[in-house]
């Protein structure tokens, strides 16, 4: 009997110790505060991915008959420059005409044919995480493919590997005012976008018509910000399966796996604890301030002007900066392609207002490399173009302005037209601000360049 009892005690002891050992190997469940810290970090990390998908959903939500949209893998060519009536996006560009396309290369590469042009015509390829994966700036045929695609390309087709199945193609074609639009249309008509299989067969391709769904007619940023935690993170988890995170993200994703954020995982809102809805709302309400505070360290001073510098457009692990740029201006260029200095004050630091008259003085014009250009555009307090009597919204290197005798340039900033309007940039009644766009900037020369100053007359 004693022998049997000893065996039973031994078995129980081994079972108990095994259970203890197993228990110790299980990962600790984070406490609620730690969970919320990770939720905030995960939201900032995944926000650009989810916003890009929402933007794609809206932009491709068409049966092919809606202006400003196009089905997947098809061009959406803009046909005019923005003016004071334009209210689709804030701070619209009036230098270039856009040709956009949302690509799905999950099954095969797409071939983009960029024609020869007599002007700046630049194709930015953004991945699903809002990084610039490639820039096409020379005429030719390009096969946009995933790295794992195995196949042969026809002679004369250049392979461009991109990291995600979802890609956003933004082509900017510069023009000199509305009278130049027919020349831009001719360039657009020569652009081609078609599956590789169709290109190989001679280029005959009938693009699908697409479909419209009322539930997909939304404002992308509002759609994303209105998602519940489960909706947001499970959307992100699904998107990560077809648009894999970068290798540099592995360390963060290992950490976020504790709250089931990652490719193919299922997020459970129960781990958020009590009062989750209220805390989620508070987190989102503070999001813009959080992002702006972190993004400020990337601001570059250029005299009285400020622009966002590297690593904009190619963010690496700067996740907060990436989220901030996605929130305020999805689709940013890298600094070698363009910089966008902004100012809302004169040389004394006083806010710019239409109640005063100013001179914007250039000692020398903005430094650009071959093919580059520059402009100065005025916007009202609402971030839109300012209505005026001569329909002029910017002055640029293609404008018919008059230089001073010493080669300097003075642009007049005023609400009312001066006697000679050659150098007049109309502004609003109230406060206004300026964006200086410098495409293909000479970044070396920029270090010693004297930026323009705004002086009250």
Quickly list its features.
11 helices; 28% helix; DUF1214; signal; 457 residues; globular; DUF1214_C_sf; Jelly Rolls; alpha+beta; Immunoglobulin-like; 5-stranded antiparallel beta sheet; 20 strands; disordered N terminus
Ranges where pLDDT stays below 50 over 5 or more residues in a row are 1-27
Discrete helix count: 11
- Anisotropy-based shape: globular
Question: From the 3D coordinates, which CATH architecture of the domain at 62-212 would you assign?
Answer: Sandwich
Task: Give the neighbour order of strands across the main sheet.
Answer: 1-2-8-4-5
Mean of the pLDDT scores?
A: 92
The oligomeric state is single chain
Rounded to the nearest angstrom, the radius of gyration is 27 Å
Protein name: DUF1254 domain-containing protein
Signal peptide: 1-21
Organism: Roseburia intestinalis L1-82
Keywords: Signal
